[in-house]
Structure formats: C-alpha cells, structure tokens
Write a structure and sequence with these properties.
about 70 residues, mainly alpha, two-stranded antiparallel sheet, 2 strands
C-alpha cells in the first residue's frame, strides 16, 4: 500500500504476516458456528486481533481460492 505525505510516497508496511493471517483464518473457521453469519465471525475475530474486518475477509477468500478452489 502506498500513501503520500507532502508529495513523498512511502510504502506502508504489511501489518500482519502470513502466520498471523493464517491464525486469524483458522479462528474464524473454528468459531463461525457461534455467530449468525460468517461476516459476524470475521468482524468479532478481527476486532479481537486488532485487524480490519475487510482485510481478514479478503484473506479468507484468497485462502479458499489457494487451497480449496
């Protein structure tokens, strides 16, 4: 991700590496039955881990493509 500060472009570091992302994905899959929807499980998990829910949702979708699709 890029952002601009007074005409200078900086790379924003990825905050969560593959290991943390994998743990979050597993946690959502383990807990999805405890919620009314998958997205509710994603939001709750993301909140607990300090992640953006949309980022986690995208990682889950990509994991499905990579490993199950």
């Amino acid at each position: 991700t890029h952002t601009s500060f007074v005409g200078k472009v900086h790379l924003m570091p990825k905050r969560y590496g593959p290991e943390a992302g994998g743990k979050a994905i597993r946690r959502v899959r383990d807990k999805v039955g405890d919620y009314t929807s998958e997205y509710d499980a994603i939001r709750a998990t993301a909140s607990r881990l300090g992640m953006n829910p949309e980022t986690l949702r995208k990682r889950i979708r990509q994991d499905e493509i990579d490993h199950h699709g």
